[in-house]
Write a structure and sequence with these properties.
Helix content: 40-55%
Radius of gyration: 17 Å
Strand order of the largest sheet: 2-1-3-4
Largest sheet: 4 strands, mixed
Number of strands: 4
Structural class: alpha+beta
Order of helices and strands: EHEHEEHHHHHH
Number of helices: 8
Shape: globular
Oligomer: single chain
Length: 223
């Protein structure tokens, strides 16, 4: 059985969890707080970042969410998430990078720092200016998602793909932290509501990070 080392608000772990659930791959969750720099965890991934996927019986260790997702795309045929033509697969990978890198840097990472890390690790108050800036950047990203949904059924094309999973993982963490203002983003909100209703997403909605509670609408499938 796979062991997924993660913590509840790690967006990259959420992306891997969504993919594994969609593909029907079993796994156990192992809580890991990377900021604690646990020696055992660092022996699995010297970079000290989640997620890390470990199968101790087969002595397999996989680190980095994109590497993990590509591994399962190559080894599990069910529910392919990087599919279609060569140009279609390139578009999926472009959008994965957009959400994993740009959205994370602009929105998710600042919110995690201000609303989670400062509170749990440094015992410091959040910087309201940094939070407002992250929420402003979120509007720009949601504008682009609105555009994508206006022009295609799913973010990268005609079928659900890793691009959708990557976006939903980042948005779910930002939404948990109260960093998403859905006003004026009905297209994205509708697309996200579809995701929230999927069986693969239900476990994410039910989990809570200690001390930090999400807004009331977070777990509402229609919210």
């Amino acid at each position: 059985m796979w062991r997924l080392h993660q913590f509840p608000l790690c967006p990259f772990s959420r992306k891997v969890r969504l993919l594994m659930s969609e593909k029907g791959i079993g796994y156990d969750l192992w809580r890991e707080n990377p900021w604690e720099e646990n020696d055992e965890f660092l022996s699995l991934n010297p970079a000290g970042r989640t997620p890390v996927l470990h199968d101790p019986e087969k002595n397999i260790i996989l680190a980095d969410s994109r590497a993990i997702c590509e591994y399962f795309e190559e080894t599990v045929q069910k529910m392919p998430m990087i599919n279609g033509t060569v140009t279609g697969r390139a578009e999926i990978r472009r959008l994965i990078a957009l959400f994993d890198e740009n959205f994370y840097h602009d929105v998710t990472a600042p919110l995690l720092n201000e609303k989670m890390r400062k509170r749990l690790v440094h015992r410091q108050p959040p910087d309201s200016r940094a939070i407002r800036e992250a929420m402003k950047m979120a509007h720009g990203h949601l504008d682009y998602i609105d555009y994508l949904i206006d022009t295609r059924p799913w973010l990268a094309g005609s079928t659900m793909s890793m691009a959708d999973l990557a976006a939903a993982a980042q948005i779910s963490v930002a939404d948990y932290l109260g960093g998403i203002d859905w006003t004026g983003h009905e297209q994205t909100r509708g697309w996200y509501a579809v995701f929230k209703s999927r069986p693969s997403f239900r476990p994410l909605l039910s989990e809570r990070m200690e001390v930090i509670q999400p807004p009331a609408h977070y777990g509402d499938i229609d919210g």
